[in-house]
Amino acid sequence: MFTVNFPIIVTLAARYAMLTVSSWEGFAAEGGLIQYGTSISWANHLLGIYTGRVLKGTRPGDLPVVQPTKLNLVINLKTAKALGLTIPTTLLVRADEVIE
Question: pTM here?
């Protein structure tokens, strides 16, 4: 539900001056304040590898459970400014991407 509707959520959050944080890729680019989560493209890549292993005969129960090793932090400064927020420099330098 959130994945499909996040442009609407971002629009409503801007209208009512609400802070928004999401793990979905592209959320900050659409106008959300902060995006923090794993890369969907990485998850899809891993899905392809696992599918290939299953097709070659590996039992799904024999495949290890994999958790993300890299989380991306994206901050939208334009949204922060519209909300009257100042993002600390210590957080900005840790961000993988800052949208200005």
Answer: 0.76
